[in-house]
Amino acid sequence: MTATEPVFSVRDLWKVFGPKAERIPGNKEYAALSAEELRARTGCTAAVRDVSFDVRKGEVFVVMGLSGSGKSTLVRCLTRLIEPTSGQLAMDGEDVIAMDKTRLRELRRHRAAMVFQHFGLLPHRSVLDNVAYGLEIQGMSRPERRAKAADIVTKVGLEGLEDRRPGQLSGGQQQRVGLARALAVDPQVLLFDEPFSALDPLIRRDMQEEVIRLHREEGRTMVFITHDLNEALRLGDRIALMRDGGIVQLGTPEEIVANPADDYVRDFVRDVPREQVISVRRAMRPARDGEGESGVALKPDTLVSDAIEAVARSGAYCRVVDNGRTLGVVGYEELLAVVAGLDDETEPKEVAAV
């Protein structure tokens, strides 16, 4: 795979359930129907409808939507746990649709590991042996796989619990075992299918922190499925928001909150604290005489919430500086406009550097 080649490349992907499902993709008449109309006319459900996207190496790509939007079906199509009805699907440039059983088994065992909502732990096995299970399937010797599993157990914060059975663990600890089991096979991509939705809020936040930490330390590519907008905004480098099987909007958290594609997305993000997602690059104005030469310096990706504190402490405007050049300035007026939703810029401002 080249530096620019995506890990996953998906083009015009459909998954249709129902009689003669193959007649639906490519049919312009059917494509124009709503989900309800399509079911009434054909008896079919388009769980994934004409979806295209790339997953870049090293990013956390989040797919989110309400129940029934098609997100879990989509992530299962990536490794053909569910067979797509039509479309193109490649991993590292290799055609996944064309893979035979042997090649597909290799992809699932070595290249892409899934972490599910339901942990699927083996109740009669210890934590260590549950973590080592995938390595056992690969044929690794018992001493070698247990040694590797022990390292992963420590990495996910389960040190000292190696000999416990799943029934002796909390829900959060069980999910850590599931995460460790996926990590143990050293996959190129981790696929998460709503893994934390059954956990209590505090435990869920801890597990989100664990994913953020692991990604920061390893830079591993992740595809994360969730119905929780806050979770998506917290974890995702980019977010694909789904509705009725299709992608309504794909972009960074900031792009989606600052520039929703339609009323559906706008309603989705309505209660998001904008200052915690939008950066000063979108809020800044051009520097006036002398303003670009002094004052507290902020990076362009500084969140407005952090800039508010900086402005409050300084008692004046702050400069937005990139590589030693002042791009613009922000003060109370610009920052409060973001908080109030009065900023109507559709793109980050491009201001001549001072």
TrEMBL record:
NCBIfam families from the UniProt entry: proV
PROSITE patterns linked to this entry: ABC_TRANSPORTER_1, ABC_TRANSPORTER_2
Lineage of origin: Bacteria, Bacillati, Actinomycetota, Actinomycetes, Kitasatosporales
Family: Belongs to the ABC transporter superfamily.
Protein name: Glycine/betaine ABC transporter ATP-binding protein
Molecular function as annotated in GO: ATP binding; ATP hydrolysis activity
ABC transporter domain: residues covered: 33-269
Any Pfam family: ABC_tran
One Gene Ontology cellular component annotation held by this UniProt entry: membrane
Entry keyword set: ATP-binding, CBS domain, Nucleotide-binding, Transport
GO biological process terms, semicolon-separated: glycine betaine transport; response to osmotic stress
